[in-house]
What we know:
This protein has helices at about 50-65, 75-85, 95-115, and strands at about 10, 20-25, 25-30, 90, 95. The chain is α+β, with helices and mostly antiparallel strands. The chain folds into two domains: about 10-65, no CATH class; about 70-115, no CATH class. Helix 2 runs antiparallel to helix 3. The longest helix is centred in the middle third of the chain and has 17 residues, at about 50-65. The protein is elongated, with a radius of gyration of 21 Å.
Amino acid sequence: MKHTPGPWKYDTTEKHYRRNTIRKNGIPIARVLDIKEGSQFDALWPQPKTTRANGDRIVACINACEGINPEAVPVLLEALERLSSTECFVQPGMISPECRARMKYAEAAIAKARPAEGI
């Protein structure tokens, strides 16, 4: 099953019936927990400022990752760590063989993260 494609928006108004709702084109996708200050749950649940920050973060992450295969993220991180841990240039304009191999690994990881065209 696929998730709802982005972009998503975080609605803190009551314009569409309920506030603190994550929406796509005005249609609700999810709600972010919002407990009123002074309730019996104050110590257990996020306060309004935290609720807003949580909603903003969820939407920002979803929108930033649109089109990336989530299963490829650990491979991408590893590829970038490998690439950044080596000195690439033997002399100006010449790339070391080890670095060239790491760059190919990084390119393959990037290709895996991006879905094929037309999907």
